TrEMBL record:
InterPro entries: NB-ARC (IPR002182), P-loop_NTPase (IPR027417). It comes from the Eukaryota. It comes from Setaria viridis. Pfam families: NB-ARC. GO terms for molecular function: ADP binding. This is NB-ARC domain-containing protein. Residues 1-118 form the NB-ARC domain.
Length: 127
């Protein structure tokens, strides 16, 4: 499950996104409890890797996703969070050491982009 978490995320919208990614159906409920239950049912017993990408607030896990997911996901499931701020990682009580990613040098970024472009062009030519 891959969730992009915006800087000014909405709890309800984040839950709805998680429901969709998990294969469930959105709800129009105004309370947090209903989407939490739907998400819990959608993932119940499934093993998953949850990636929360670009997290700006540590409460995204403890305050929103932990309740419906922690006891519903199968044993062996994992959570991976990316953030730009060490304080966010600390706030989630993530295990240390944290992996710090450095920016690519411009020539490495261009090289990576060119490789991806070639793959896309090859797919178009062979399709």
């Amino acid at each position: 499950m891959w969730l992009c978490v915006n800087k000014d995320f909405s709890e309800t919208e984040l839950l709805m996104s998680a429901i969709e990614v998990a294969g469930g159906h959105r709800t129009t409920a105004n309370t947090k409890a209903v989407p939490e239950q739907i998400l819990k049912e959608a993932v119940k017993g499934h093993k998953a890797l949850l990636v929360m990408d670009d997290v700006w607030d540590h409460r995204v896990w403890e305050g929103v996703l932990q309740t419906p997911l922690a006891n519903a996901l199968a044993r062996g499931s994992s959570v991976l969070m990316t953030t730009r701020h060490t304080t966010v990682a600390r706030g989630t009580k993530a295990e240390e050491p944290y992996h710090h990613v450095q920016k690519l040098r411009p020539e490495d970024a261009w090289s990576l982009l060119k490789k991806q472009e070639m793959k896309i062009l090859n797919l178009r030519l062979t399709s």
